[in-house]
Amino acid sequence: MKDTLVLKTIQEKIKNLGSLPGCYLWKNQMGQVIYVGKALKLQSRVRSYLNPNQKDRKTRALFVELYDLDWIATRTEKEALLLEATLIKKYNPKFNVRLKDDKKYPFLCVSTSEDYPMVILTRKVKDNGDRYFGPFTDVKAARDTLELIHRIFPIRKTKLKLPLPKPQRPCLNFHMGRCLGPCQGNITKETYSELVEEILRFLEGKKERLVADLKSAMVSASAKMEYERAGFLKQRIEKINQLREKQTVVSLDGGDEDILGISRRDDEGQIVILEVRGGRLEGKKSFPLSGLSFSDDEEAFTSFLRDYYLNVTLLPSIVFLPISAKGNYDVFLEAILEKFGTSIKLKFPEMGPKKSLLRLAEKNADLSLTERILATKLRDQTVAMKELQEKLNLPTLPRTIECYDISHFQGSSPVASGVMFVEGKPYKSGYRHYKMRGYEGINDPGMIHEVIARRLSHLVNEEEPLPDLIVIDGGLTQLSRAAEAANALDLGHIPMVGLAKKREEIYFPGEKHPYSFDIHSPMMRLLRNLRDEAHRFGVTFQRLQRKKKALKSILDDIPDIGASRRKSILTYFQSKKKVTDATRSELEKVQGIGPVLAEKIYTNIQNLKKIEPK
Description:
Blueprint: H1 4-14, E1 22-27, E2 33-39, H2 42-47, H3 57-65, E3 68-73, H4 77-91, E4 98-99, E5 107-110, E6 119-122, E7 131-133, H5 139-152, H6 172-175, H7 189-203, H8 207-223, H9 227-245, E8 248-249, E9 257-265, E10 268-277, E11 280-290, H10 297-309, E12 318-320, H11 330-340, E13 345-347, H12 353-379, H13 381-391, E14 400-409, E15 412-422, E16 425-426, E17 432-435, H14 444-461, E18 469-473, H15 476-488, E19 496-500, E20 505-507, H16 522-555, H17 563-573, H18 576-580, H19 584-588, H20 595-611
Parallel strand pairs: 9-12, 12-13, 14-18, 18-19
Antiparallel strand pairs: 1-2, 1-3, 4-11, 5-6, 5-7, 8-11, 9-10, 10-11, 14-15, 15-16, 15-17, 19-20
Helix pairs in contact: 4-11, 8-9, 13-16, 14-15
């Protein structure tokens, strides 16, 4: 039961609140803020928390921990809404839904406060007359958009205070047609402003209008015989149309809409926004949430809409939300209207095309949440190693793990690869390649036996430390042969497992039946990373061996071509095709090859090509 003295102390505080709007802050016994809320009437709202028989699960859980109360009165409920967002960011209370990432998201800035604006990436939004677009949840997406603008629009990219007192020579971007060269002083501010307006419309999503205006300008330029300008405009139209062709049409009425979906697991969640501009699906933004354990979808979306849309630079006309989020958003919409001079419509479709898009947004949110949870686990590789030790019953934490794979092309040029992970991460100095000595053709188990015997013999002879775990890319047969090699050297105590590709199952030496584990677990992700890295490393080496063998065979039977000249030829041409296609004059360019020898090599290669199978 809640301490009676604590309740009486809080009740005495509540008597002083009155019916003012504002924010209240519940604190625990440690003085930490555990919940921030807003209310139109502080006194009645705060008093409601003191009933121990609450139906709401969140309020019951909060009641157990609350110990003290603080508050801040405001003039209106709208001011309380804005203050609530600030306080949640400041205190990060455990019972509030909040954006997990409190970092500043990047924006694209068009520096319209300058005579000759640029487009730059920034994390600071200033009230200085510039235009900002964002926020972008993915820095790479912001950089990709910036690069796309620079490819389509010949705007300046060098930071200069223009106009310059004295015109300077243009940079390479001007000569490549990727900048109009305002640093030269030969382009008017009005002409440059037209380009900036095009960029603004592009970033606003008004691409259809932009294309129409560009076509009109192109026709006008052609009529005036300004063919160079018309050509530039045509190129921009083509690039924009190429981009629009990749974007899916999801709304025939051509509106600007946001489709929101949510996924949640325990305290963690993810909200995804599908951005529809001009009727086309243009992008996706994903936001991590926390504090969802005791919150329903309505509270989650109420918090998100406040934190996101009161900080954007462009509003959609409509925001579509799942029916589970339906509630009272009047204060939020009032704040939007005051800030932007226009409002947005919130809709909760229960059927039809928009309902399908909501399901798509929810699916994307679920995928993003899964990826984030897995990435979080994998960042701490100790978790994966501890799982390996526990699940595989290893004597020690597997800090050093080696994995081996066999690669060949239809039995030819067989090689083995060994990779080493230390503390769960690739350790490139421990990577090894092996050319097979005792086996030819297709005999993966035999080759595994050979490479494990060679590796362990080397470690013993050189008195180097043994690995904590050896992983064999393969099933029971390959693992059995590897274990034989270890036992022959009295090293059977080294832990060893086989990882089968087909079902991601793990085999243990001496056991016929494999074991299955959660394929999404950190342990299995680490084992798959090992196996895939060993395969990649082996295939790369095997292809190199085949390439060298093919190049060598062309020159082996030509008279007067020894090892030194053969090496010079292979180094110069680098590929079999370039050698076989080389002319006499190209062969003469190789060091140590004169006209007579070049003729001899050329003739031999041509004769060889005649008898080679097609």
